[in-house]
Structures are given as C-alpha cells and as structure tokens.
Amino acid sequence: MRTRFLGIAEVTDVPDVAVVVDVMRAYTVAAWAFTRGAERVVLAESLEDALAQKTRHPDWVTLKDGSPAPGFDLVNSPALLRNTDLSGRTVVQKTTAGTVGALAVKDAPLVLCASFVVAEATAGLLRERAPREVTFVVTGGSGRAEEDLACAEYIAGRAGGDAVNADPYLRRAAASRSAAELTQGVREGSSPEDVALCLELDRFPFAMAATVESSLMVLRQVTPTDSPSA
Ligand SMILES: O=C(O)[C@H](CS(=O)(=O)O)OP(=O)(O)O
Ligand SMILES: [Mg+2]
User: Fold this and answer.
1) Which of 16, 72, 102, 184 is most buried (most C-beta within 10 Å)?
2) What is the pLDDT of residues 167-216, one digit of tens each?
C-alpha cells in the first residue's frame, strides 16, 4: 500500500481512498457524537450552510468550532459534547480544518475521517480494502500539524499490518501546538479535558466513512470485519 500525506491545499486530484485526519478536534468530536447516539454527521460547507440546514430541519443539531454562536447548539469539544444525548439525531458540523478536509476529497470513492480514538478501526478497514494507494489528508497547519501527521503515520503503519508502538505518535500529538493551545484555553469553545480525550487511542471500535447523499457530505459509522493483525 502506497501512502501520500497531503495538506488540504495540496489535494489536486481525486484520490481512490482518502483518510482525512483531524485529531484536535473535529473527528474526535464526531466519534463522540456517534457514541452519544447520533445517526449521522453532515459536514457543512460553511457556517451559513449549517444554519440553512437548521432552518430546513429544525431538529438537526448544529455544531461549530470556536466560540458558541446564535443558531448553533454545540461547540467542537469532546468534553463539552460527551454528556449530550444525541440519540437518532443528525448533527451538522462545521470546523476550520476537519470538515474542510473531507469536503476537499468529496468525490473520492472511499473517504474515511479519522483521529486517534478510531485509529485501529480505520486501519482495519484499510487492511480489508487493501487499496494500492491511500491519501492521508493532514488537515491542520497546512498539512504540518503534528497531532494530525502523527495520527496519519500511525494509521498508515497499522494499515500495512505493522506492529506499531503508539506511544511515540501519541507523545508527538501531546506536544503539538494544538494541544498546547487547548490546554492553555487559547481556543474558544474548549474544555481542559479535550486534549486527554483526543489522545485516547482506540477508544471506539468503529471507523467513520463520508459519502455524498443528496448533495450533502454525510459521515456515518462503519465497523471493519477483520480483527487486528498485530
Ligand atoms: O476546534 C478546533 O480545535 C479547530 C479550530 S482551529 O482549527 O484551531 O481554528 O478546528 P478543527 O477543524 O477541529 O481542527
Ligand atoms: Mg484540528
């Protein structure tokens, strides 16, 4: 399996298989939303798009990064979301990096959205599909955010069937600029517990796949059938 690691702006073709990585915090938050019962997560093109969806579907739950805002029900924080009952709900998520990365590869036949909490399930799906090439979209810091790059490299190793020690990858993520900003409370709409929740390796047994449904980019849970090979 060949691998490419690209920032969002470096995606210029339509990959066969894309893994969009956002550890802090979009795809840690999305995984928590599923765990709290969400049926699907719609990845919105813009804040205006998210609000328009809410107008059309008042029962949908809107979520954005940064500070709370009128029309939005939740912020992009795993700690602040994890006690919210989302049973059967559709969540509409708009963030600065994670959702933008998925929309950049919306035409790819397989789009997985990933973070450390779903790392092994994501790698398991890739082992199952055994594609010739996987494009990892490293969403933060123009492709250089250390937490996303570390997670992408870890998943790539596991997808290749290697017995990979996760500790150095988690340490890189813990030392990242994003982790520091979240810990210092620089980012609005955050909790001091967010970093620890974003670094919980394999907290959840499912992967997350995004497909276009009625012109919306929709993220759903998907469970690999293979068992870990290492
Ligand atoms: O909510 C987050 O942590 C970030 C916000 S920003 O990129 O630091 O402005 O969004 P995400 O898309 O989850 O990385
Ligand atoms: Mg991020």
Assistant:
1) 102
2) 999 999 999 999 999 999 999 999 999 999 999 999 999 999 999 999 99
Mutating to test ligand 1, I would choose from 29, 146, 187 the residue with most ligand atoms within 8 A of its C-beta, which is 187
Element (H, E) at 217: strand 216-222
Q: Indicate which residue's Cα is closest to atom 2 of ligand 1.
A: 25
pTM listed for this prediction = 0.96
Give CA–CA dist 168/36, Å, rounded.
30
CB 143 within 8 A of CB 7: yes
CB 24 within 8 A of CB 147: yes
Q: State the Cα–Cα distance between residues 196 and 76, nearest whole angstrom.
A: 15
> Does residue 95 line the site of ligand 1, with CB under 6 A?
yes
Q: How far is CA 50 from the centre of its chain?
A: 18
Mean pLDDT, rounded, for 66-83 = 97
132 Cα: distance to centroid of ligand 2 (angstroms): 27
Which ipTM did the prediction report?
0.93
Strands 2-6 and 133-138: parallel
Ligand nearest to the CA of 182: 1
DSSP character string of 143-165? GT-HHHHHHHHHHHHHHTT----
Amino acid at 104: A
